[in-house]
Amino acid sequence: MAFFNWKGIFIVGLSLILNSNSFSQGYNSVVISEIMVDPTPVVGLPAIEYTELYNRSGQALSLKNWKLVIGTRTAVFPDSVIQPEEYVLLCNKVNAASFNGFGKIIPLSTFSLPNTAGTISLYRPGNNLVFSVSYESSWWSSDKRAGGYAIEMIDSDNPCGEQNNWKVSEDPLGGTRRK
């Protein structure tokens, strides 16, 4: 005679659901996929610093009260959502209109990137680190170091690849334009 423990099945099912939701906002679920630290001289994009996020979690995520920390400066995200496999641009709110037509934009009240080296970290509420990257000017090839080119993550499935997982954008605009 088969015996089913519905209570046990319910607990296991609930545990799987809770764990998948925890994963969706876990470490590297959202990554910084592109960084434009020195937009001048302009190659084709607006002369504005930005970074791009990519949601690799497979679930829509509310970014409300997430934080972007750049060096010692912290910006808190407004009420916004990033869909699965969606890219969003982050920039200073005073410059956000310049990126109309370049995809989804989340304007932040504080946003400034150091040109030569810096660390950008993304935290969800509760100060839980989601992603962090430290870059240096040597990540740009010498012919692109003067400005106008973004660096892009090569493989979002290998977000811990450090410098080997980043390259200078090959897009004619100097950075990837997504719609």
UniProtKB/TrEMBL annotation:
PROSITE patterns the record matches: LTD
Domain spans labelled LTD: 21-137
Segments for region (Disordered): 157-179
Any Pfam family: LTD
InterPro entries, alphabetized: Lamin_tail_dom, Lamin_tail_dom_sf
Entry coiled-coil feature ranges: none
Protein name: Lamin tail domain-containing protein
